[in-house]
Amino acid sequence: MSTSSSPLFFPVIVTRLRASGCVFAEDEAQLLIAAARTPEELAAMVHRRIIGLPLEQVVGWAEFCGQRIAVEPGVFVPRRRTEFLAGQAAALARPGAVVVDLCCGSGAVGAALMASVDGVELYAADIDPAAVRCARRNIAGGGQVYEGDLYDPLPATLRGRIDVLVANAPYVPTGEIGLLPVEAREHEPRVALDGGSDGLDIQRRVTAAAPLWLAPGGHLLIETSERQAPQTAEAFARNGLIPHITSCDDLYATVVIGTRPALRS
Questions:
Q1: CB–CB of 158/131 below 8 Å?
Q2: Are residues 122 and 234 in the same domain?
Q3: Residue 59 included in any domain
């Protein structure tokens, strides 16, 4: 939208956003003004934000690892904390590594890995059709995205070949979904949030099958909470993976890394 008209809208938008509970009203107003092409579109975007849609779904993108990741309405918004997961995966991926992003959502982690590791052979999968559409946009030309439940849609030829397997699986316990911010619980897919009674149902399924898909010496990385990490690590060990818990206080992020033992010579 024309920058000359922006000052006329800014204070009004800030007031409306602040009244609706937006903590960073000034920053959000600037983003909305920059994203809108016409005053009418701006008014519609402000309305969507005020009624509770995540800002990223309103403007159509989220910033993740320095990239703009396309995000459609109804798609899980990549969290800042997940940049730690992406960074840990990038540190383990060699140039040309075979990388799989399970529960990929918008494809943010896969896109970050393509940008930071040369020549990765990237595959991604998600059960949500809207997420798959976004992921195909975000990793267009650099990887393959499949729709289906966890490993089911992946090519069988990947079995035993995956060097780095990343899974940002849902890990919120069912009973705690109601405690999430309204943006998440009303405007993001339940399948991307609900991890079952203890939050670990999907993680256990990912972990149980991982040894069949990982190459010898390959790594499984799962984002989880600090509270749940010991249980996640125990599941890794039960399935023959060597677990390691790592965290980042700045991002309030915890990742469990499991390594499939290398073959003995």
A1: no
A2: yes
A3: no
Domains in the chain: how many in total?
2
> 51-105 pLDDT, tens per residue?
888 888 888 899 999 999 999 888 999 999 999 999 999 999 999 999 999 999 9
Q: pTM score, two decimals? A: 0.89
CA nearest 122: which of 149, 147, 104? 104
Closest listed residue to residue 251, CA positions, set 70, 130, 86: 86
**Alpha-carbon distances, residue 81 vs 32, 86, 225 (angstroms):** 23, 9, 11
- The Cα–Cα gap between 106 and 139 comes to 9
In a domain, 57, yes or no: no
Contact assessment for residue 131 and residue 76, using Cβ atoms and an 8 Å cutoff? yes
Instruction: Assess whether 11 and 86 both reside in one domain.
Output: no
Residues 112 and 188 in one domain: yes
Residue 92 lies in a domain: yes
Gyration radius of the chain's alpha carbons: 20
- The reported pLDDT for the residue numbered 203 is 97
Amino acid making up residue 89: A
Dihedral angle sign, alpha carbons of residues 123, 124, 129, 133: negative
Do 45 and 89 reside in the same domain of the chain? no
Instruction: Retrieve residue 131's tokens.
Output: 């997420």
Q: Give the whole-angstrom CA distance, residue 221 versus residue 167.
A: 6
Tell me which residue range forms the domain holding 190.
82-259
